[in-house]
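Format notes (please read before filing issues)

Several people have asked whether sequences and structure tokens are stored in separate files. They are not. Every record keeps both together, in the order shown below: the sequence lines, then the token lines. Line labels are part of the format and must not be stripped during preprocessing.
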Amino acid sequence: MGRSAAFFDLDKTVIATSSALAFGRPFYRDGLITKRDVVKTAFAQFMFKRSGADDQAMVRTRDYMAELVKGWRVDQVRQIVNETLHELIDPYIYAEAATLIEEHQAAGRDIVLVSASGEEMVQPIGAQLGVGDVIATRMKVAEGRYTGEIDFYAAGSAKVDAVRKLAAERGYDLAECYAYSDSVSDVPLLAAVGHPSAVNPDKALRREAVERHWPVLEFRHPIPLGRRLRNRPAVPVAAALGLSVGVAIGIAWYGRRKRARAVASAP
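Then the structure lines:
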């Protein structure tokens, strides 16, 4: 058996928000975007939560974000992300996803975050989770500023190409690898591994998962990572697993523990 890895999409799979859109407020505060941009970002966030991201939506988002960041200083963006990560991302990490990542690590698998968001955002989020490997969008940079062009957009078939390239470099047996995503745009990624799972899937991905008999996982408990580390053991992987797999008991177990802690702490 060759080496294996677990590939995790980020938004709505590991975190209960959009990593690219979550930083709108600090970008506005520091003068990188206007009020009009804030409104457009908020609307995009609303539509993202409501309907997920299909290929066309992701292309529009890519083009909009590339034009938006043109001229921004890379060091300023990294500073904003690092300063606000705890406030804007940490509370939205799914406890089920964090536990699943730990289980894969304990089994000796490498963990790779695979996201269409910029690597300036994905890498610090990965560091929060103890994950050093990321495949993310890379913007072109000249003289320390974004040019408005994209070197690599980590979405659709390009995302799968990057996964296969990494697998070849490291000797991963993709038949033994795992992948997790919420979006139908990641069907090629899920189909590329031997153990795919749809997480909080949009309608189109849910249909695909049912047709292909892929497990469907429902993550419902975003918990600040710091609190999770203090209160281990945390939520087990709560999963409603496809047609051929039984429903996991993790959510009920978590609810009992939460109620028991509440009773124990009551005066």
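For reference, the curators noted about this record: The first strand starts at residue 5 and ends at 8. The radius of gyration is 19 Å.
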